[in-house]
# Entry
Amino acid sequence: MKYTGWILPPALRDFHEGRIWLKNHSPFLPIDIDKAITHQYFHILEGIQKNPFNKCNRCHNIDPELFTIFECASCQQPCIYCRHCIQMGRVSSCTQLILWTGPTAIKKRKHVLKWTGQFTELQQQAADETLASVKAKRSHLISAVCGAGKTELLFPTVHDALKRALRVCIATPRTDVVLELYPRFQQVFPKTVIHALYGGAPKQDGYAQLVLATTHQLYRFDQAFDVMIVDEADAFPYTFDETLQKAVEKAKKADAPIVFVTATPSLKLQQAFQHESTSFIPKRYHNHPLPVPQFDALWNYEKSFFRGKIPKKLKHWTEQRIVQKEPFLIFFPTVALMEKAALLFQSINKQILAVHAEDPERKEKVLKLRNKEIPGLLTTTILERGITIRNVQVAVVGAESPIFTANALIQIAGRVGRNKDFPDGDIRFFHHGITTKMDEARAKIIFYNKEGFSL
Amino acid sequence: MNKIESRCLLCSQPLKTTISWKAFLTKQFSPTICEKCSARFVPAQSTTALYQYNETMREYLHQLKFLQDVALAKVFRQELYTRFKKEKAIILPIPMHPIKQQERTFSHTEELLKAAYIPYIQLLEKTTTETQSSKNRDQRIHASPLFRLKAGAQVEYKDYLLFDDIKTTGTTLKHAIEVLMTAGAKNVQYFTLIDG
# Structure
């Protein structure tokens, strides 16, 4: 006689645990999914909840403008779908979302922390405070200047949680940050299954106890994580998109603590966290003060570029960098202005390149600068955070533009002097009039230095 | 149906809606995409299509057909309306196979016309579930009949205008024209959104 029973494929459980997924988009065989449903291993949700108002059950979008109604050929009646998360596969009234409720994946308690670095006193203190907060299931804010070594001080907390068989997520608004963190965490936790999730990520097998993800990917999780860490918590679009903030809440278990990590905490964040659940590091790991931005007037720079001339001061600055063989980054407020300028800069040195958000060769170009194959790079705000280049010198053209908020300027200034062999460098704000945001950025940097070196 | 979009359907940037007298008196559709996005679509060179195929168009079709974002059918409603409003021939959108249509949950050619309030009828039926895009040029040209007449369809002595989303080798349109002409149509023309 043939065995006619059904055995749950472990891979199915490992994949679906914690995830909220479109039933017909599951990477597993429909027959296995149906069997799992008859075993009540899945909770089934309708795609769009209609009462009291339309709500997408995956991304929790409730904006009426982002729902479209149409005559559906599949369910033969008017059907509503959510346009907010459409890039992840359409959720409509007649699609079903499945949520794992079956046996849970086997979680390992043996995790190795392979890290030999040394914490500075301030880092150690912050790491201890964070660990204590997370152990007490209390949310925590780590506010540390650019280059303070924020990632490292998460290691003890993450390691402790993994050893307690908890599931940990490190989320960030930027794909670049996920890509940079992934190899680092793989190295530090060699015995742990880690998945990196972002738009266009390759398929990864097994049950990941540690997930690195963009905040967008969290739409696909539901009450999955015991510890949630939000890195670069002040970065676009997280701060502007309320559904992303809701996604973080939804992806974690109700009582799971959140650790916010940022260099430029918003007032709202600062006010939400008091005393014992805040760590503040005003000093870089190499114990040198932050480079303070210098203001330099570049009157009518826009006119000058459109007339086909690089403003004198900027040209001089660039030539100096090339002569002294220092890599440089020049930030521009708009892609259009940058492209205009790029042609002019190439007449100084042919190898100067330009990058913007939709540039497919973005990664390669940054790598070229890091490997000293090119003298410098023109960029928009996309490179404001997450990148580290030895001895880089930075100029901002049009620092008065509204796109350069105080936070953006602090982040940009934070690119300079990150290496302990080159702890200082030039950070120049070229402007057509000083704004309060420029003043605020500079005042904050000076304040951090004062805090860090008055102790 | 004719709601005013406050954000661009393609890039979600806020749309500046200025209600002009011209738009009001000539009953124009309100815009659904921003000027920046619409500048990325390149007008076609031929008279039988509206646009050329390019990267932006590829993304548009992907989102409409593969990601099933029906709302995008509205993007070209003004242009399609302008082209079709004085059309005397009977407009026939290229049909989908019923199974395919159920999978996609809508027929994109019909939705494009519906969004522009253009009346149409269906006289043809698709015979296969194969897609043209899965075949190479040779296979496309030598494909067995793709369409047949619907039962009881009266075709004779009338002018027709076929409508499809994209024309690449023209095989789909050729097959449809053949079926209609053999059934006694007076004249069959075609028009596509995109010239591939």
The first strand of chain B starts at residue 49 and ends at 52. The CA atoms of residues 127 and 146 of chain B lie 5 Å apart. The interface with chain A takes residues 5-7, 63, 67-71, 101-107, 111 of chain B (CB under 8 Å).
